[in-house]
Design brief:
Helix content: 40-55%
Number of helices: 2
Oligomer: single chain
Structural class: alpha+beta
């Protein structure tokens, strides 16, 4: 008669119990994996929105900088003569650039001699056309004044809702 080996029998029982729990373990691990993938997809969507926001800020900053440089090389100069011991003084005035962007800004092609007023109009319209062409912007407003510089305010739609996030970019001009 063969001797009874009780260790072998317990090993067999443990293996049969293990076989039944592997299905549950697989389901739990798939659930955890699905949660991880959903978290990664959520982060991907947020990253894409952040990239779009940064791109819009970059476009507006570049357009504003271009306009500020155009304004700096084309100001109206105000000359005050010397009187009573006060030296003469020349100040820059950017009032020709003042106001808000028109609803539709058209840039005209230059031919021949360009007058100062035409240059001012073309620089403003080029700026306005650039910022109005930004995709995903619900509303945009640009103000140009000698006192405050160039202020651009725009609203971006977020998550498909009607109300969005409002941003402001300011470029101060040298006086």
């Amino acid at each position: 008669m063969k001797p009874y080996n009780r260790f072998k029998q317990k090993t067999f029982q443990a293996a049969s119990l293990q076989r039944g729990s592997t299905l549950i373990e697989i389901l739990v691990s798939m659930f955890i994996l699905a949660l991880g993938i959903m978290a990664l997809l959520s982060m991907q969507v947020r990253t894409a929105a952040g990239i779009k926001e940064a791109e819009n800020m970059s476009i507006i900053a570049q357009a504003t900088q271009n306009l500020a440089e155009g304004m700096a090389i084309n100001p109206t100069l105000n000359y005050t003569a010397a009187t009573g011991g006060v030296p003469s003084k020349t100040t820059k005035n950017y009032s020709a650039y003042g106001g808000e962007c028109p609803a539709s800004a058209a840039v005209s092609a230059a031919s021949g001699v360009i007058e100062r007023s035409d240059l001012v109009t073309n620089q403003r319209n080029q700026f306005c056309a650039t910022i109005q062409a930004i995709p995903g912007v619900q509303s945009i407003k640009a103000e140009m004044s000698a006192a405050s510089g160039i202020i651009v305010t725009w609203t971006m739609a977020t998550d498909g809702t009607a109300s969005g996030v409002t941003y402001t970019y300011t470029q101060v001009l040298d006086q």
